[in-house]
Amino acid sequence: MKENVFNRNLLKFIKHSPTPFHAVAQMVEMLDGYGYVRLREGDAWKLEKMGRYYVTRNDSALIAFTAGGLDWPRSGIRMVGAHTDSPCLKVKPRPEMLRHSFLQLGVEVYGGALLNPWFDRDLSLAGRVTVLTAAGTIKNVLCDFGDPVAVIPSLAIHLDREANKDKSVNPQEELPPLLLQMDEDARSDLFFRDILLDRLKRADPTLDAVEVLDFEISLYDTHPPALAGLNRDFIVGARLDNLLSCYTGLAALLASSGKQPALLVCNDHEEVGSASTTGAQGTFLEALLTRILPAPEDRLRALDRSMMVSADAAHGIHPNYTGKYDGNHGPLLNRGPVVKINAGKRYATDSETAAVFRCVAHRLEIPVQDFVMRSDLACGSTIGPLTATRIGVRTVDAGVPIFAMHSIRETAGAHDGYHLFRVIHAFFQTEDLSAPA
């Protein structure tokens, strides 16, 4: 795959993945197109040599893998981990707020979001809706309004003269978006669930839903991701952390030969601690490994010969804020993927796993950068340490450097995603991790 094709498909994937549910649906469509067989946790499994499989959980997390020769205790498994969720604003269960003729929605902040960039954006709504059908059954339906249907207007500078000096955001009072203007007396009975049901039926007239029972709906920026810069040096868009890694890992898996057992896990809820059935602290990956390797000795032997790349975004050195970085460990955009290191094990990288990653990249003549947080700043974390702890697999934390992490729009280098794709693709097909070069 050439870089321009990779970037074009990446932008398309991000555009059509406004929520984890949509991201998994996109990945399922890609896997189906490559002949991967869907497994369901409630069914009996029978795996075949050279088989290609995937399984989802809660429609928001996914594991895809190639079985190779089924001799996992001898070959080990090459694993890549990413996460489908991103910081955002989620609609509350009873969100309706009618104030001065404006219908607004109450929202919660999901994850460590930068809040100021959410103001004055063309916002839409997307997520999963659980409905009651005419037959009395419960059904999950994906929902995406698509068009700009909401906005969070800023307060005019005339009413807040200090806004450019010290702007804090009260999420309860200042973040409810405007949805529409209406007559307070005539339309006081309008409910968000009615709006959802109407939108679902307009999108699919054959849908036999009679009631919205519940929903998981988020706001998102409708402006599509794009290549930017005079020389198109940058990718600018929402949810680069961490849909870029999800797409990169999946594209690398689909392009691999399948001879070497390889696995991609895309967890949900990383941005809020990963403590869920679909998060890295949950049982999703562990349950799958136990299922395909039921004998404890075989499973431990396979894990000893395995390794994971925890693929997540890294902090690129921002030219306007260079003092926020360790001078020797500030990655540059478009200078190659980044190995992330932390003495407190906020990242799972050790010298051995970093060496394997560097050797694979070196073989491809792709440079590798390092990131270490300043010693006087707190370090973030990833699914890497959680997965390593949960299943005991050697892990390296690596990814592409970006700006504005956790903003409504982030910036990455236009070449770095493709570089990471090539490294992961080669990693998936590396037979001997002790001699990856």
Automatic annotation (TrEMBL):
<dbReference type="GO" id="GO:0006508">
    <property type="term" value="P:proteolysis"/>
</dbReference>
<keyword id="KW-0479">Metal-binding</keyword>
<keyword id="KW-0482">Metalloprotease</keyword>
<keyword id="KW-0378">Hydrolase</keyword>
<dbReference type="GO" id="GO:0008270">
    <property type="term" value="F:zinc ion binding"/>
</dbReference>
<comment type="similarity">
    <text>Belongs to the peptidase M18 family.</text>
</comment>
<dbReference type="InterPro" id="IPR023358">
    <property type="entry name" value="Peptidase_M18_dom2"/>
</dbReference>
<dbReference type="GO" id="GO:0008237">
    <property type="term" value="F:metallopeptidase activity"/>
</dbReference>
<keyword id="KW-0031">Aminopeptidase</keyword>
<dbReference type="GO" id="GO:0004177">
    <property type="term" value="F:aminopeptidase activity"/>
</dbReference>
<keyword id="KW-0862">Zinc</keyword>
<dbReference type="GO" id="GO:0005737">
    <property type="term" value="C:cytoplasm"/>
</dbReference>
<dbReference type="Pfam" id="PF02127">
    <property type="entry name" value="Peptidase_M18"/>
</dbReference>
<protein>
    <recommendedName>
        <fullName>M18 family aminopeptidase</fullName>
        <ecNumber>3.4.11.-</ecNumber>
    </recommendedName>
</protein>
<keyword id="KW-0645">Protease</keyword>
<dbReference type="InterPro" id="IPR001948">
    <property type="entry name" value="Peptidase_M18"/>
</dbReference>
